[in-house]
Amino acid sequence: xxxxxxxxxxxxxxxxxxxxxxxxxxxxxxxxxxxxxxxxxxxxxxxxxxxxxxxxxxxxxxxxxxxxxxxxxxxxxxxxxxxxxxxxxxxxxxxxxxxxxxxxxxxxxxxxxxxxxxxxxxxxxxxxxxxxxxxxxxxxxxxxxxxxxxxxxxxxxxxxxxxxxxxxxxxxxxxxxxxxxxxxxxxxxxxxxxxxxxxxxxxxxxxxxxxxxxxxxxxxxxxxxxxxxxxxxxxxxxxxxxxxxxxxxxxxxxxxxxxxxxxxxxxxxxxxxxxxxxxxxxxxxxxxxxxxxxxxxxxxxxxx
Length: 304
Ligand SMILES: Nc1ncnc2c1ncn2[C@@H]1O[C@H](COP(=O)(O)OP(=O)(O)OP(=O)(O)O)[C@@H](O)[C@H]1O
Ligand SMILES: [Mg+2]
Hints:
Blueprint (H helix, E strand, L loop, with lengths): L1 E2 L6 H4 L23 E12 L6 E12 L3 E5 L6 H9 L6 E6 L2 E2 L7 E4 L11 H11 L4 H14 L15 H13 L5 E5 L7 H18 L2 E5 L3 H7 L2 E5 L6 E6 L2 H8 L8 H15 L16
Parallel strand pairs: 1-11, 4-9, 4-10, 7-8, 8-9
Antiparallel strand pairs: 2-3, 2-5, 5-6, 10-11
Helix pairs in contact: 3-4, 3-5, 4-5
This protein binds adenosine-5'-triphosphate and magnesium ion (MG).
């Protein structure tokens, strides 16, 4: 496995607050050095269609997700990223291979996995609070508990004061905040996110990235996150997986310390470091299948 060194420039460590307003947050006391395997995917293939119309979407996918990790999945369009996520969610069943959560086969949808899609699946005419409360109502939790938890999760996604707003009144970023709160409130073991910020403008996207990074850090939640965006993967993931073109299989597995560096040091100059630049070039080349351009005599960065 490739391991990108953590950002370690001494001169940058003294900076207090990054220009985008990102705050340092305290990580819940869970071991970050992950050893506790949560999800195991072994030799999973998914074939859609039958007989002469059958085609493989993913082939012999092997991966493990450990409790507390933030795993990003990248790959060219149509390579089978969503198919993998749908298998983890229990929406799709593998044609062959095995998928387990804490050793138990994943055979359908259950509350252990929360899912957030690019287009938030919300009840448009319900209030924000009612949308967030939905899972707990289905679980028939007591009213007082639902009220408390809705307030807590509204706060955690920055929507305090919007409880009574209808979903159709909200912006795209606010809708995604509701979708995240709704997924988290039932306390799933893992949050599965399929290009959740793909439809947002650049500024909102960055705010949402900061929000999800902070939630991950504060709660110790395990996150599996699909993105097309190399920068997004590096800014969020503790590990980045890359898939080949369809039928997709995992072709790269990179540990990344950039998001952690940002959280621990509250300094976003990590994004402009040489290490970040190198990791970015490597990932781009893996995703596009094109060799990384050589930019300097020792390949240490751009010469412009
Ligand atoms: N339910 C389905 N029935 C038939 N074919 C499907 C189904 N779901 C996905 N596919 C096909 O499987 C392949 C992989 O699709 P998938 O959506 O997993 O790709 P992806 O990597 O998520 O793509 P994108 O980056 O565009 O979202 C595609 O050719 C797609 O058309
Ligand atoms: Mg997809």
